[in-house]
Amino acid sequence: MAKVDVPDIVISRLPRYLQTLNQMAKEGMHTVSSSDLAARLRTTAAQIRKDLSYFGGFGKQGTGYPIYLLIEELQKILNLDRIWQVALVGAGNLGRALAQYPGFPRRGIEIALLFDADPNVVGTQIGTIPVQHVDFMESEIQDQGIKIGILAVPAAAAQQIADRMVSAGIEGILNYAPVTLILPESIHAMDIDPVLQLQTMMYFIGED
Amino acid sequence: MAKVDVPDIVISRLPRYLQTLNQMAKEGMHTVSSSDLAARLRTTAAQIRKDLSYFGGFGKQGTGYPIYLLIEELQKILNLDRIWQVALVGAGNLGRALAQYPGFPRRGIEIALLFDADPNVVGTQIGTIPVQHVDFMESEIQDQGIKIGILAVPAAAAQQIADRMVSAGIEGILNYAPVTLILPESIHAMDIDPVLQLQTMMYFIGED
Question: What is the pTM of this model?
Fold first, then answer.
């Protein structure tokens, strides 16, 4: 399938469709219409139909889709039909929370490697994951062929660790440090910064 | 200023502009062009100029903006010229990490209230913040006039706590639970779910 034609913004919406469909399935629903899904997601049925039309075969307006088929299809499209191993750097408060987040294994994500630089933390375990010294990061990532890294380090260390991840073969970085990383075009980088989202809210709430 | 005319998507980009400008100021830069800023943010100068044109007075193409003025302007637009108090619900691993996140106080956000239902946790302190029983959530939020809530509870509890937040007067909810909340139109809700972002990456990386 020529996936190059699908806009990034469409891809970025698919995980949320999948999450909501899983929720609906858990609630005991068997079929879903694009307007049912749209209502949950505060979007339009037209948008959902257009997004899904890139991948073909999800039926047409007015008819309900079998939820389990749609879930299966989306999982295949997103390459979720496998376990993804991830390297996590930073074992502070946030890193520790991420290392133990039950939502990762439940959705096919395994924190396979965990690194920190603090001698008081290196050598300990967080949950079942040993904390290794960040000096071993590149070699461990290469040995295990890991493609995705999570950055949970302080802002001042983030760019340097990100550069080292890239040199070790990492292709996707989820960055929790509150900095805008400078990375090669080929790297799939995304940021999680609760402050940026809260600031967007503050614009709207401050005017009330 | 008639802020109703500004599209939400434009507002959602302003915090990132602000963050990058702060980074540039820290690096010792004094002026910035829209193309400098665009290069850092992997966007176009035209996009940035268009976004900022909603608010007027940032100069025009080709001339550099004084960074400190742009920072001040953006802070005013986003209502960041004050401390924002926030109620956090959930004192598990994630809630504990959030309660101690130095990036909040550093950027004007104070976790003023912290709630949990676990009797082993209620009555303890996390950092300097006492953990209160979630039964007191509504009254405390009302007493302190808090408008923003952060949800760091398990998926199964999220909708119910969100409903209670809304009934207590919360206008904005940052939701870390991996569920799509059903909320009144008037509520500014945003989700943070690292799995959704990782799944978007997996689409691209799985094809390499």
Answer: 0.90
